[in-house]
């Protein structure tokens, strides 16, 4: 099983000006952390949004042999069994951490159950947020909000997890705080697509690196190895 994407996204820079065209074609393994990297402005976040269906591109997407879009067929985002963590976490500010997680669980109840789903209680413990359950996002640090957002994404029992530069809004101290929790994602039995441009994050987390070049050039996915073994 694998993740396959052959997508084209075209839109005008101005109403009468030239068009910007993104072409994404890549096959990724259905396990481990797949890090998408490249210079600013080449379309890393756009690629993630197209995979999730948040931005509609033309083409084909399948995840673990399940087709999400192909030609006229387009599975809307809310029906795709995915978890998504944005740069700012995007927790519901009026809900406690516990209720944010419950929202994620309700999403999973409306979809088919994932046999590879994570044990949420285990990851609440691993992510170190058990003592935060009654707090609202406004009373959390940046690192705590990102850990809670990650737990909410996992609560939806996703078949794939998308992380869009989850450390970019944090200072170095908070990045150091959350990195061990991100490393724990390597134990998940689901694929992860992780957008970043940090060499430290790539070296620490990536099993596969997708180098995204300037628009029009081919994408390259390279498996990383350590001592002759896949990371």
What does this structure look like?
The chain has 231 residues and is an alpha/beta fold. It has a single domain, classed as Rossmann fold. The chain has 6 helices and 13 strands. It has helices at residues 44-52, 97-109, 120-126, 142-155, 172-183, 199-205; strands spanning 2-12, 19-29, 33-37, 58-63, 66-70, 73-74, 82-85, 160-164, 192-195, 208-211, 220-223, 225-226, 229-230. Strands 7-8-9-3-10-11 form a 6-stranded mixed beta sheet, sandwiched between helices. A hairpin with a 2-residue loop joins strand 12 and strand 13. The longest helix has 14 residues, at 142-155. The relative contact order is 0.20.
Topology of this protein?
Layout: E1 2-12, E2 19-29, E3 33-37, H1 44-52, E4 58-63, E5 66-70, E6 73-74, E7 82-85, H2 97-109, H3 120-126, H4 142-155, E8 160-164, H5 172-183, E9 192-195, H6 199-205, E10 208-211, E11 220-223, E12 225-226, E13 229-230
Parallel strand pairs: 3-9, 3-10, 7-8, 8-9
Antiparallel strand pairs: 1-2, 1-4, 4-5, 5-6, 10-11, 12-13
CATH fold assignment: Rossmann fold
Provide the CATH architecture.
3-Layer(aba) Sandwich
**What would you call the quaternary organization?**
single chain
Query: Strand order of the main beta sheet, please?
Result: 7-8-9-3-10-11
**Helices and strands, in N-to-C order?**
EEEHEEEEHHHEHEHEEEE
The N- to C-terminal Cα distance equals 18 Å
The CATH superfamily is P-loop containing nucleotide triphosphate hydrolases
